[in-house]
Structures are given as C-alpha cells and as structure tokens.
Design brief:
60% helix
Amino acid sequence: MSKSRYLSYEDRKNIEIMLSRGIPIAEIANFLKRHRQTIYREIERCPKGNYSADEAQKTLMN
C-alpha cells in the first residue's frame, strides 16, 4: 500500500478509465497500490455509476 495520503489526479484518471472498462475494485486497488476502501471512498465522491476524475477533483477544491 502507498504511504501517500492523497490520490493524485493521475490516480483518479486511472480509476475512471478502469471503472469504465469494468475492472473490479480489488484490481484497481492493487494496480494503484491502495486499499480497496480508499477506492470505494473515492468513487463515492461522484453520483453512483458516473465517476469522473474531473468531478472528484473539484470536490477537493470546495
């Protein structure tokens, strides 16, 4: 697991792409070297089924 506290914009883009391809959360977490719960929390930043890296990034700015 990564010791970095926050996901980068690049991580968010990877999550967006992988989700759109139907890749399971566990595989996304392994790829990003993050815990599954981190990925689930990140996905919750956007409306269900519509994860967008840009929208998730905006929620951090507010």
